[in-house]
Amino acid sequence: MKAKVLEIKWEDAWIDTQDVLVVDAKKLKPILRSTVGWLVADNENEIILSTDIYHNDKDKEYVNAIMVVPKGMIIDYWEYEFDDTNSS
Questions:
Q1: Residue by residue, what is the 3-state secondary structure of 9-58?
Q2: Which of 21, 38, 81, 84 has the greatest number of CB atoms lying within 10 Å of its CB?
Q3: What span, in angstroms and rounded, lies between the C-alpha atoms of 10 and 75?
Q4: By the 8 A CB rule, do 7 and 36 touch?
Q5: Please, what is the end-to-end C-alpha distance for the chain in angstroms?
Q6: Where are the domains of the chain?
Q7: Are the C-beta atoms of 4 and 75 separated by less than 8 Å?
Q8: Which residues, in sequence order, are CB contacts of 51 under 8 Å at separation 6+?
C-alpha cells in the first residue's frame, strides 16, 4: 500500500478577545502556518489529514486526530509518498 504525507502551507483564521481599535483591526491578517500529516482525502474543496494511521489489520480502517483544511486557505503543498508494504 502507498501511504502519502502532505506538508501544507496555509492561512489560518484566528481570534483574539482583547479590545482593538477599528483602525488597527482593519490591518490584521490570517496566520500563515504549515501542517504535516497523513493524507486521508483530497476532495474538491478540502484536504483531510491525520496525525496517525495504523498498520495492523485490526485498526487499519481508522485514523486519529483528523484536520480538515479548506483548499481556499492553502498557499502551497508538497506530497511525499511512502511504500507501506513492509508493515505488519
A1: EEEECCCCCCCCCHHHHCCCCCEEEEEEEEEEEECCCEEEEEEEECCCCC
A2: 38
A3: 5
A4: yes
A5: 12
A6: 2-83
A7: no
A8: 37, 38, 64, 65, 67
CA distance 20 to 45: 33
Residue 60 carries which DSSP code?
A: T
pTM above 0.70, yes or no: yes
pLDDT tens readout for residues 20-47: 999 999 999 999 999 999 999 999 999 9
pLDDT digits (tens, 9 = 90+) for 78-87: 999 988 665 5
Q: What cell numbers appear for 39 in the block?
A: 493524507
Query: How many angstroms separate the CA atoms of 2 and 18, rounded?
Result: 47
Asked if 1 and 56 count as a contact pair (C-beta separation under 8 A), the reply is no
